[in-house]
Design brief:
about 375 residues; alpha/beta; Arc Repressor Mutant, subunit A; four-stranded mixed sheet; 15 helices; globular
Length: about 375
């Protein structure tokens, strides 16, 4: 049996592979699976060449095929690169990623949102093909990426002390009307209030104690904007204060205290407590919001992988972007990022600690 060879200086990635054995690799070769391009190359003893998994050449016989982790390992074993699929050059996925990375940089450098046709022309692609590749790789459309970039510029300019008029144009808005249409959803408050570090904004907050440590719940007039967990209540208050240093942190009302108690009950016994149905003040990019809505659709006691969530939001290749959106979530349990696991069933990361994630899942399963 031919096993995957790595050569003396080449090793397999430490992450779990979709192609862990020769049967899986051979199936990928037979199916010309593009996702296997970055995992291995295969060599044919009768021709002396090695190829990508997607090579369009006539399939070799299984007994003549061996697998290598890298082109260097195949060449060290005496094989030469196939002239048809050119496995010694960057793969198509790598070339596409480089094009989209440059397009992202072009969007970030532009004073105004670049037209789709302009971005596509610079990439050497048709607008339709460029749009499709951009969304597949980044998880969002070029328009949504540009909106998120404007979001970041608005926050950075206001935080740096820039005036609202200056911020309008520095952030890529060509009119004040468009700016004020978008900015409320971006900041959760008016730009003048955000510029002043949340001055004038009232954030009701309280900390309850659960069996998993302290739980901070915070809310604006719109709804709950944060549910965070830590062993130290001072850390939780500092995290909230860092975002809006001049906001007024007000004491909880009896109704708000009951809301905090409801969150704590859910943390302590989610299998018995009713599902959280709270008004939320969700602040994030278009893609993050899509991911967070998908998380809220996962029933208690069940899990989904990052890859499955990527499929559900219509961006199957945006697994890393999904993981980043989960990491950016500040509303624990109500937006249940603890129900998202790795493809291999591992717990992967969790903003508030892997042990809390494990115990939440165990409790939900009863």
């Amino acid at each position: 049996m031919h096993t995957l060879s790595t050569g003396s200086r080449n090793s397999l990635p430490s992450r779990v592979s979709r192609f862990p054995d020769d049967d899986a690799r051979w199936a990928a070769v037979r199916g010309r699976d593009p996702e296997a391009e970055s995992e291995f190359v295969f060599a044919v003893s009768t021709t002396g060449v090695y190829c990508r998994s997607t090579c369009a050449a006539r399939p070799a016989r299984r007994e003549n095929v061996s697998f290598f982790a890298t082109p260097l390992a195949a060449e060290a074993a005496g094989y030469r690169p196939c002239k048809r699929c050119r496995p010694d050059l960057p793969s198509r996925s790598e070339r596409e990623a480089a094009l989209i990375a440059e397009a992202c940089r072009r969007i970030e450098r532009s004073e105004e949102e670049p037209a789709l046709a302009t971005l596509a022309e610079k990439a050497g692609l048709s607008p339709h093909h460029f749009h499709r590749i951009f969304k597949r790789i980044t998880g969002v459309t070029p328009k949504a990426y540009a909106a998120a970039n404007r979001h970041n510029k608005v926050q950075a300019n206001l935080a740096a002390g820039s005036g609202v008029t200056e911020t309008i144009y520095a952030s890529g808005f060509n009119s004040s009307g468009r700016f004020y249409e978008a900015v409320s959803g971006m900041l959760g408050m008016t730009p003048s209030v955000y510029k002043k570090g949340g001055e004038g904004e009232e954030i009701c907050h309280a900390i309850g104690r659960s069996s998993l440590g302290c739980v901070l719940v915070a809310a604006t007039r719109r709804g709950v904007c944060a549910i965070m967990m830590d062993d130290d209540p001072a850390v939780l208050r500092a995290d909230l204060k860092a975002r809006f240093p001049k906001a007024t942190l007000i004491e909880p009302t009896p109704a708000f205290a009951e809301l905090v108690a409801e969150v704590v009950r859910f943390v302590d016994d989610p299998a018995r407590a009713e599902g959280l149905n709270l008004p939320l003040d969700i602040r994030g990019t278009t893609f993050q919001r899509r991911v967070w809505e998908a998380l809220r659709a996962i029933p208690a006691g069940e899990t989904a992988s990052y890859a499955e969530i990527a499929q559900r939001v219509g961006s199957p290749h945006a697994v890393r972007a999904v993981a980043s959106a989960c990491a950016a979530n500040k509303i624990a349990v109500a937006i249940p990022c603890h129900r998202v696991i790795a493809t291999n069933g591992g717990l992967a990361g969790y903003r508030w600690g892997i042990e809390r994630k494990r115990r939440l899942l165990e409790r939900e399963r009863g």
